Amino acid sequence: MASKNIKRVWEICEPHGDVFAKDLDPSLFAVSLHHVEQGTADRDYTDPERFFVKTFMTRSLANLMERVLGRLCAAGGVGAPILRLETPFGGGKTHTMAALYHLCKHPDASGEAEAVRPILERLNLRTIPPGIRVAVLDCRELDARNGREVEGRKILTLWGELAFRLGGKAFYERMRDSDEARTAPGAGKLSALLNESQPALILMDELLDYLVKAKAVKVGDSNLMEQTGVFLQELTAAVSASPQAVLVVSLPASSLEIPEENQEAAERLFQYAKKVLGRVELVETPVAQDEIFGVLQRRLFKWLGEEREIKRVVNAMADYYNEYARFFPDRVRTSDYRGRMLKAYPFHPELIGLLYERWGPHPQFQRTRGALRLLAMVIRRLWNQRPGSAFLIQPHHTDLADRHIRAEVVKLLDSGFDAVVTGDVLQRADEIDRDLGQEYRREKLAQGAASCAFLFSISAATRDMGATEEEIRTALLRPDINPAQISEVLSHLRERLWYLVYRDKRYRFQAKPNLNKIILDYESDITEEQVQEGLKNELEKIAGKGKTPLTVIVAPLDHRGVPDRAEPTLVVLPLELHERSRAEAWMKEVTQQAGEAYRSHKNMLVFLVPEAGNLSQLRARMRRVLALEAIRNSGSFRQMDEEDRQQMDAQCKDASTGLQGLLLTAYSRIYRPSPEGISELPAGPIPEGVKAKTLAEAVYARLEKEGLLLKEVSPEYLSEKILAKDREISLDQVASAFVGTPGAPLLTEPKQAISRAVEEGVKQARFGVKVGGRVYFGELVPAGVLLEDRVTIVSKEHIGLEKVEPAGEGQRPVVSGLRLQTSTSHFYPVQKVVDLLRNASAQVNVELREPTGELAKKKAEIEKLLRDYGISFEWEEEKLS
Predict the structure, then answer these.
(1) Which of 213, 308, 515, 796 is the most buried (most CB within 10 A)?
(2) Are 748 and 797 in contact (CB under 8 A)?
């Protein structure tokens, strides 16, 4: 079912008005029994009608009220005399006592409550009998050292308070001596007091708070804590003996909640209290786990919405989990889980599970009270923001950008985590969403995943800290989002957050900076010069020198750094020459010049030019590699735990490999000299099946694929392209035509390839070779002949008639000649004559004589020019008489 067919929680439900209070008063969810009795608590707690309307009647609370009322009213004798309430902090103990207080103190109003009437029916009571005495002993409010002034007298002990609250001054006077001496009164006094007070309910809240304070008050050779312990033993005996008396005492679930100076002392005190009350106790848990949904719904919402709308939402979520089954835990795809979603609506079961199972055992989290307060803030935020993602209230809706919510969460850890949330969750995760764009940013997937990981990092058990990828998906995702996106998001979070750690397949936050932060700190110390030098070194590593027939020159400054050799030379341009016009001008200059001379072997050059778009990424990756190397060489690396060192080693390897991959990708533009100057090869991939690990290998594969790099040249090419008809040309000129003429084939070994082509051409009688006075034609050329000086290749038409087939029957070819004599100032007609005979491939002999010495001055320049174009020449010197 698409999300457009289902409504959001803020379209279906209606929260109670107090949820939208400007500042949620802690007293809304943190009731004090003393303030309830005094009438100073919130009206939701002091008004019995309002109290029972907002109270979800759990099975445990209903049973407890029935037992207490049954004993007090002597209705069937079903009640136990001593009840000990024991739940984790904020688990509903005080709320339970407030319910018992209203039940007995305000019988008319309480008896009319819808939640109470079934209890009366089971006890066969039409109304709650009046006259039940209620003694409230809120031990957090009592001063064990100084006592309190009441009607002109000071009450110093719990037994003094009990007597006064049951019967005023008259009852107190019976207990006065024991109170003033701070010694336990004895079971007889207490029994007499209770017999006259029946029916009597004694509510003793947070007893251990009082015992901690009483331990410091000396009483003879003992202390007030020990005397109070004796009193409690006497009291339990007296209550048990009184048929219409009930004592309800609340204790925490563990010693972690006791405000003692150390854990050992807290545990001793906890065991002491349990021992004092243990013989006659009945332990009650006010809120069972499967009832918490009802507690939260009743307290926070006035109206949950139409059942059909709720089912539509739950069905859409269930369908979503089934559609993407492999991404979610098996349990969320069961019919039982669908029932839990219905029961928990508008909350997602994962949110309530997080608060009660993960946070519940945390000593600083007040389970029901803390959950109510936090959820009220979350609801207020959702109703104000109205996000499209709120089909159910999920863990990711605990928006840590809200300072009130953030404070409520961070207080469970320490103050340092506020900076963790601000930096990682609110800033860096948001940057990831913006970088990923589109749906990621709209749905805040990175920020939501980081928030979930942070919330799951709060746990009393270290082994449960953090969340698996499955748990993050369940806490974050909703219909219309592809769960596969979360894998990408988490990958970015691992790489870019400063306090997120990934251990044992769980994501969790810590206060200590992770490797990402350490690496960034080191990166900030890396200079731009170090980055430049590092990139040049990396270029040297992946250039591939010696791996191919290409000679590789890496990042030369200018033409002086590129030797002029008759061998294929790959010039890897410096990274800063990524701009096209600058790169082309630089390559043209290198093609023309080699130091102080003209370049003779320009056709041997291949240029590799970087792409501009990869430069910033390359610099960043190089900085990362240098930082990682610095960390591995530092003392802090040796102080890391084994897992961090292994992660560092892996990051070093990945960063180095990634850098090399970026360099291979960055250098993708190949240029060659051409008749027009410089030409770029058409863009194309490395040929299939070629695994290029170096720049030279990649370029070599491309040149071979395009047919631009040859190991051999054919005799036909020499005959048709190099050697014109009726012409002879020196072997040096042939070599110059290949190595010096842009656009000619690029030979891996020009000299050897040309020699092999010449030998084969002579053997095939395509042309001849003349050495001195000897001409080889249609035969094998002996070894070493082509190494001699003044080797000339001669077209077969020019060799001699006895070696050549006749041009026509009985005819010999006629050779015409033309000799000209003129000066350089009248060379234009000569040039026109040459143009007329261009297609005839005529041989031109030019003789220059110049008496002023100008020819001799330009000798080097003239020689260079003639060699570049493969023209043979000889110098003659003649002294004028």
Answers:
(1) 796
(2) no
pLDDT at position 5 over 90 = no
Distance CA 492, CA 476 (A): 17
Encoded tokens for 291: 């009832």
Query: Using 50, 70 and 90 to split pLDDT, how confident is the model at 828?
Result: low
pLDDT band at residue 831, thresholds of 50, 70 and 90? low
Amino acid present at 837: L
Contacts of 564 (CB under 8 A, 6+ apart): 594, 595, 597, 599, 600, 601
Give the number of C-alpha atoms closer than 13 A to the C-alpha of residue 509, restricted to the C-beta side. Answer: 28
Q: Which residues contact 458 (CB under 8 A, 6 or more apart)?
A: 358, 359, 362, 365, 409, 412, 413, 465
Which has the closest alpha carbon to 207: 284, 287, 156, 274?
Answer: 274
Beta strand 82-87 with 283-284 is parallel
CB 518 within 8 A of CB 619: no
Per the DSSP assignment, residues forming a β-bridge with 679 are: 672
Q: Which of 620, 619, 540, 532 is nearest to 572 (CA)?
A: 540
Mean pLDDT within 138-155: 90
Q: Answer whether residue 858 shows pLDDT above 80.
A: no
- Segment 444-449 mean pLDDT: 97
Give the rounded distance of the alpha carbon of 739 from its chain centre.
54
Is the pLDDT reported for residue 671 higher than 90? yes
Q: How confident is the model at residue 805 (pLDDT cuts 50, 70, 90)?
A: very low
| Cα distance between residue 277 and residue 735, in whole Å | 110
Average confidence score pLDDT of the chain: 86
How far apart CA 436 and CA 493 sit, in angstroms, is 12
Contact 486, 471 (CB under 8 A): no
Give me Rg for the CA atoms of the chain.
Answer: 48
Residue ranges in 469-614 assigned as alpha helix (H): 469-476, 484-496, 515-523, 528-543, 580-592
Q: How is 381-401 classified by DSSP, letter by letter?
A: HHHHH--TT-SSB-GGGS-TT
Using CA atoms, how far apart are residues 204 and 225, in angstroms rounded to an integer? 15
Question: What distance in Å separates the CA atoms of residue 734 and residue 771, rounded to the nearest whole number?
Answer: 15
Q: What is the pLDDT of residue 413?
A: 86
**Both tokens of residue 660?**
């090399």
Q: CB–CB of 663/608 below 8 Å?
A: no
Q: What type of residue is 417?
A: F
| Per-residue pLDDT tens over the stretch 72-118 | 988 655 678 998 887 654 457 888 899 999 999 999 989 888 889 99
Question: Does the CA dihedral 337-338-342-346 come out positive or negative?
Answer: positive
Q: Is 870 left (phi over 0), alpha (psi -120 to 50) or beta?
A: left
Q: Rounded to an integer, what distance in angstroms lies between the CA atom of residue 696 and that of residue 94?
A: 79
Q: What pLDDT is recorded for position 11?
A: 95
Query: CA 881 to CA 879: how far, in whole Å?
Result: 6
Beta strand ranges found along 139-262 (DSSP E): 148-150, 153-155, 200-205, 218-219, 222-223, 245-252
More confident: 613 or 106: 106
pLDDT tens digits, 718-753: 888 888 655 788 888 888 889 999 988 899 999 999
Q: Look at the block and give the residue holding tokens 């009437």.
A: 117
- Evaluate the omega torsion of the peptide bond into residue 346 and state whether it is cis, within 30 degrees of 0: yes
For 757-772, the three-class secondary structure string (H helix, E strand, C coil) is HHHHHHHCCCEEEEEC
Are the C-beta atoms of 570 and 552 separated by less than 8 Å?
yes
Q: Is residue 220 packed enough to be buried (19+ CB in 10 Å), middle (13-18) or exposed (0-12)?
A: exposed
Q: Which residues pair with 203 in a beta bridge?
A: 136, 248
Is 626 in contact with 520 (CB distance < 8 Å)?
A: no
530: left (phi over 0), alpha (psi -120 to 50) or beta: alpha
C-beta of residue 125 within 8 angstroms of C-beta of residue 117: no
Q: Can the peptide bond before residue 742 be classed as cis, meaning omega within 30 degrees of 0?
A: no
Q: Among 498, 542, 504, which residue's Cα sits nearest to residue 519? A: 498
For 306, phi and psi rounded to 5 degrees?
-70, 140
